Amino acid sequence: MVETAPIRVLLVDDHQVVRRGLRTFLEVQEDIEVVGEAADGDEGVARAAELLPDVVLMDVKMPGTDGIEALRRLRELDNPARVLIVTSFTEQRTVVPALRAGAAGYVYKDVDPDALADAIRSVHAGHVLLQPEVAGALLSDGDGGGNGRGPALTDREHEVLGLIADGRSNREIARALVLSEKTVKTHVSNILMKLDLADRTQAALWAVRHGLAG
After folding, report:
1. Could you state, in chain order, the average pLDDT of each consecutive group of 10 residues for the chain (214 residues)?
2. Residues ≥6 apart with Cβ < 8 Å to 31
3. Cα 101 to the center of its chain, rounded Å
4. Which residues pair with 8 in a beta bridge?
5. CA distances from 119 to 50, 82, 139 (A)
């Protein structure tokens, strides 16, 4: 059996107690490795560039550079890390801007530890963790990224987009459609280019808005 490399995680939170608690739990997960910590957004961006984590657990409200600004900077730097927001704020006015800035999803700080580990695995696999009420808020003003008037998608691209909206990873899409992962990646790239979208989160929102979600 081929061993899979652990998911490399960076913790970004201004509260040391929170970081310590997250690290204590995550370090007992065989498939997750905490590679570093940061106490604010500036440090988080720098550590992400240095350590190249697979997933960043990012707080929203932090002194100085907050999590949303850090997200924007990571995107500008084309950092490939998937960012999972970990927040104590349940208001949509806090979560929605984070998703618009490029987060792959969010969980609350009182989340069950096992659910947190599953969330990390999920976003690492390419899924988008988006609760229905937040998707609705993102779409209520027509925001889903792109202009919604891009060139027509092929039938296959519509199938792939629908599966993205269902939270499927490229591997799962490949299995469902009996394609290679490389072919799926090409379809995803074409979809993002045609619809003028930045990432899978925006693609999922576009699909929901246009009735392609399952």
Report:
1. 81 93 91 95 95 94 90 88 83 73 82 88 82 57 48 83 83 89 89 82 77 64
2. 4, 6, 7, 121
3. 10
4. 33
5. 24, 11, 23
